Amino acid sequence: MTPHLRHLLVALVVAACTATPVHALQLPKEQRTPGGVALLELPARSGDDAPVATYDGLRTAVVRNGDKWLAVVGIPLSASVGAHTVHVEVDGVMRELQFHVRDKRYRTQHLTIRNQRQVDPNPDDLRRIRAEQARSEAALSRFTAEAAPVLRLLPPVQGPRSDSYGSRRYFNGQPRNPHTGMDIAAPKGTPIRAPAPGVVVETGDFFFNGATVFIDHGHGLVTMYCHLDRIDVKPGDRLQSGDLIGAVGATGRVTGPHLHWGVSLNRAMVDPALLLGDAE
Ligand SMILES: [Zn+2]
Description:
Layout: H1 3-18, E1 37-41, E2 53-55, E3 58-59, E4 61-65, E5 68-74, E6 82-90, E7 93-101, E8 108-111, H2 123-140, E9 168-171, E10 174-176, E11 182-185, E12 191-193, E13 198-206, E14 210-218, E15 221-231, E16 238-239, E17 244-248, E18 258-265, E19 268-270, H3 273-276
Parallel strand pairs: 8-9
Antiparallel strand pairs: 1-5, 2-3, 2-6, 4-5, 6-7, 9-10, 11-18, 12-17, 13-14, 13-16, 14-15, 15-17, 15-18, 18-19
The structure holds zinc ion (ZN).
Zinc ion binds at residues 179, 181, 183, 260.
């Protein structure tokens, strides 16, 4: 290698290293499958305001990435394989962006629950469950546009994580809804901490989910914490990353103490692992 060529290479390497943006954007890992996340570059537009993008009629998170805007789209576990559409307004004109959702095979799980009523609820239980579903739905469907979007999360509890997100589930031999969160095993009483800044929007003692907390992080990102032994927050509390939420327990429909962690993006319960990133 000539000294000139060596000098040129060094210059190129230095240029490559210093070209990283000052404020690196923390994005979820992209996975265009049911239960995954799509990152879609939005068409160029005039003005500095964030564009409004919708998927299935619900607003999605939109973040600036350099001089471009990206829609960060949660894909429901029930999404069909094939073409999906995001709508975005560009300078007064509604545009359609298509993306392709590919198949992902999730496992089947068989679980044994001691309390048969948690598998076959009675009519009173069903009334209670319906009322709780409405509260849960209201919390998970929130879209708060204020504050900068947070799209990377810290683990709320240290402990072994199941990769059972998406599993088709049988309780005592009967098919039930698939698993739309991550289970983190930890002893009863282990502290649970906020994975990002946010506001507590709902808490309660739910039939299936036990003692539960919902946190709104803004831009359609809402996280839920289930089966708690103890809740240490109340609706309206503003949290920073690492603030105490409560303690791991075994309340509701469980086989043992663990945290069930749900992550909702534009009302789609996505695989929480996609928002944890690699550097943990
Ligand atoms: Zn779970």
